[in-house]
Design brief:
Blueprint: E1 2-5, H1 11-19, E2 23-25, H2 31-37, E3 43-46, H3 54-63, E4 68-71, H4 81-86, E5 90-93, H5 99-114, H6 117-125, E6 143-147, H7 151-162, E7 166-170, E8 182-184, H8 187-193, E9 196-199, H9 213-218, E10 223-227, H10 236-245, E11 248-253, H11 264-267, E12 272-274, H12 283-301
Parallel strand pairs: 1-2, 1-3, 3-4, 4-5, 6-7, 6-9, 7-8, 9-10, 10-11, 11-12
Helix pairs in contact: 1-12, 5-7
Length: about 300
Amino acid sequence: MKILANDGIDSSAKQQLEEMGYTVEVEHYEGNSLLDKIKEIDCIIVRSATKIRKRIIDEALITKQLKLIIRAGVGIDNIDHQYAKENNITVMNTPNSSSDAVAELAIGHMFAIARYIYLANVTMREGHWNKKQYRGIELNGKTLGLVGFGRIAKSVAKKAMALGMKVIYFDKADTVNTLEGCTAVDKDTLLKTSDFISLHIPFFEKDGPFLDRTAFQKMKKGMFLVHTARGGVIDETALLDALDAGIVERAALDVYENEPIKNMRIYTHEKLSLTPHIGAATHEAQARIGLETIEVIKHYLS
C-alpha cells in the first residue's frame, strides 16, 4: 500500500507503518500536484489543511487506485465523504485521539479572556503596568453553554464542572447523549443564559454559520465566546460587530473562515485572544492520532 500523509504524521507512526511494509510519503501536495499524486496512491491521510473535494476524488477515479481516506482527527467536513463512499472509497477518522487536547485549549482560552492573560502578556512586554485595567472574572459559578455534545464537548464539560461551572448544552443531532451534571437546552435558551459559550460542531456550507447576526442579538450581554471547532461556524463580521457593541465582552478563536488568517480586523482586535488552529497540536495528541491511524488501517485491511 502506498500511503500519502499529506498534512504530516507522527514520526513513530510513520516508522511503524513502514515496518509493516507500507510506503509512506509525508511531502505536502496541493493544487495540480495533488491532482496528479492522488492517482498514484492507495491511501491518503489528511488533517484540516487538505480539502478532499469532488474534483480530487474524480481524479482518483481515473486510476481507481485510491481506496482509503483517513482524517487524522475528528471532523470529516473537509472531505466530500458521501461522494467518496458512493464511489467505493472508504472514509475513516480518528475520533478518540485529540479530544482532550482541544478541550484543554478551550479551557485555556476561557482563562485567557476571563483574566486578560492574552492581552496582559502583550502590554507587559511593551512596558505597561495595567494592573487596574485588567480586573477580570472567575469561571467558578458561571454558566457554560456548549454547542455540540460530542467527545470534545464532553471533555470540556468535565473540566468546566471541576472548576465550578454550570454546564448546559445544545446538540441538534443528539440531545439524549447526556453527561451527569449537564443539562440539554434549546438553542435560544443557550444563547440567552450562557456566560460563556464554547463551540464544538462541524461546518457545512449549506447550513451557513451557526452563530450569525441574529444569534448574536439573542446573547446575554457581556458574554464570553470560545471557538475551537471549524472556520465558518461563526460569522466573523457579525462577531466583530458584537464585540464592538459589547454583546460579546471578549472572545477566543483557534479557527477561522480563511486560514492562514488575512482579516486584519480580527488579528488587531484587542478583545480577541487568537491561536493558529492548534487545538490538536500537542505531542501527546499527535502520538495518539498516529497510533489510531495505524489501527484504522489495520481495521480497513481486516
